[in-house]
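Quick entry, no commentary yet.
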Amino acid sequence: MEKTVKTVIIALGSNLGNRLNTINSAIHKIESEVGPIINIADCIETTPFEMESVENFLNSCIEIETKLTAWEVLKKLQKIEIHLGRPEKTKGKNESRTIDLDIIFYDSQVIETTELSIPHKEYHTRGFVLIPLLQIAPNFIDPSKYLTVKQLIN
């Protein structure tokens, strides 16, 4: 049985090293290992959220198409993070990092397991995700809130 193509939206963030270079490297790796990129938001610079870091983040979102399952996408993103210098195990989720890749949406699916939550649980409260998301997918409907990205921002 042939797998169907799914639309996936991924948030990217970096606040260590050459942030723009790292984000661009992540985008190229995602395109080669996960699927073609349909849309890329501009990078925005943001202050760290719920962190004691002094290094600002660069954040963006991309929209891709893939035939991989959500779990396969997650595993590929984790490998890309490690390849780009993120430690495999971190002391806490709120520490500086070379790269952070989060699945925000996987088509219109709602997935809730211990290792994967889609839509991403907290994306709608984070301007550093919503602003780039609004640029590439303003009319995407959150399958758990039944609101478009544009409606979530307003």
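second:
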Amino acid sequence: MNTTDKSETELILINISGQDRPGVTSALTEILGKYDASILDIGQADIHHTLALGILFKTESHKSGDIMKELLFKAAEKNVQIRFSPLKLEDYDEWVGMQGKNRYIITILARSITARQIAAVSKIVAEQGLNIDAIQRLTGRVPLKDGEEVRTRSCIEFSVRGTPRDREQMQRDFMRLTNELEFDLSMQEDTIYRRCRRLICFDMDSTLIETEVIDELAMRAGVGDKVKAITERAMRGEIDFIESFTERVALLKGLDESVMKEIAENLPIAEGVDRLMKVLKRTGFKIAILSGGFTYFGNYLKQKYGIDYVYANELEVEDGKLTGRYVGEVVDGRRKAELLKLLAQVENVNIAQTIAVGDGANDLPMLTTAGLGIAYHAKPKVKANAKQSISTIGLDGVLYFLGFKDSFIN
């Protein structure tokens, strides 16, 4: 008699719950091994010291009774609950057939994640015909009482499977939710490229630093209001960047070169930058600044954080004074996208392995070119056109969109 015939094969799903303690998984799988059962699927989670373990196994019919009896006794000995659910072979075959379905990672990020946010996101997932396979927390446990000096971060990650009925509508619904419920969200295809990003390019002003350097220079030159007004119009995409840049630089004529050193030494670094750079360098990322700002300040950050590349604009200096002109080609939105592609070639990485982070309209070309484009505390037009955005926490939120967990990087 052929004991592997389907008519004599049973599939059984066991669900174990109770207080987590060492040895539970070992003891239960040891019984399955004793009877030569084949484990087809297994998953385990620990939520506040409470175990949730599921095992789907295949065995010969004449062994199933003994296996379940021994598992039941062992569960009682370990003081955990166990539940058995038989599974039809055709149901299993259908489940296996879904392995070719598209998979996505949905990341939810905020200072503190609420039930309303999770409910709203999961509702859209269900409406689009997707199934949630797993949910995990990437951040450490959030204290009940926040210290005044501590800025909390909270992040959970959904692994979902299927093909959205309308991907564009799904993205619009997500963006609406992030505005209404004040959280950040990223939806990425779960591909090999998502798991091995290698090159990350940052805008500088209002991204790595919490200011626009040209505004700082303008204030020292006594033309702050004029330059700031032009800057804001350019960042909103209302006027051409090169034209606005030329106008603003001209207003700096006569400013002493020493002012740049004083500004550089007092740059307000954005929240989370120190942590982000430390992790990126430790994990082998190549890091670039692609900025419409100035090389003097980009090079200062390069030295501070060990950044690999800086491409920005060079101010012309004569006799220790700014001339009101710049040297070379302006790094505008088009140039940023070109530099991103060039650096990907230099580093021999697929464009899908690249990341771009920025806040202004002139960052949109590189955000849409990169494998992962992230709008950071961005202007409304930029956020509306970006697939991912971070507006609720610091720049180290980028790490969670890459799948890093606090337990690995802290």
